[in-house]
Amino acid sequence: MSRTIGIIITAVTAMLCGIPALALTCFGTYMVVSAKTPALMESGQSSPEITLVTGIMITLFGLAILLLVAAVGYFSIRFTRPDPPSVDGSEEIAPKIL
Predict the structure, then answer these.
(1) H-helix or E-strand containing 53?
(2) Which letter does DSSP use for residue 2 in this model?
(3) Are the beta carbons of 22 and 96 closer than 8 angstroms?
(4) End-to-end Cα distance, the chain
(5) pLDDT of 46 above 80
(6) pLDDT above 70 for 6
(7) Element housing 87 (H / E)
(8) Are the CB atoms for 8 and 32 separated by under 8 Å?
């Protein structure tokens, strides 16, 4: 796999997984904060304990997906081969000096 393909895979993973993971993390954090704030829970039907546990689970799930995005970025760029030099003659290859 070339370096260019690794960068493309990283960008696609960041767009498709990173943005929803950030949204999940923000939503879960909002649920945790709203479980501790009675003014934010007025319209809710569930108890604060259920909201707190659900918020923590959603936040951890979002963080796990962000960790996956970071791992894909690391491994797809770290273990790629460099692009081969062009052969079209635009670059001259210098002779090796002993």
Answers:
(1) helix 48-78
(2) B
(3) no
(4) 33
(5) no
(6) yes
(7) none
(8) no
What pLDDT does residue 7 have? 82
Cα separation, 33 vs 87, whole angstroms: 59
Between CA 19 and CA 13 the distance in angstroms is 9
CA distance 75 to 25: 24
CA separation for the pair 39, 31 (Å, rounded)? 13
Mean pLDDT, the chain, integer? 80
Question: Which of 35, 65, 60, 62 lies closest to 49, judged by CA?
Answer: 35
Spatial separation of the C-alpha atoms in residues 7 and 9, rounded to whole Å: 5
User: Region 33-49: what's the mean pLDDT?
Assistant: 73
pLDDT of residue 23: 95
The residue ranking higher by pLDDT, 23 or 36, is 23
Residue 90, H or E segment: none
Q: Helix axis angle, 3-13 relative to 48-78, nearest 10°?
A: 170
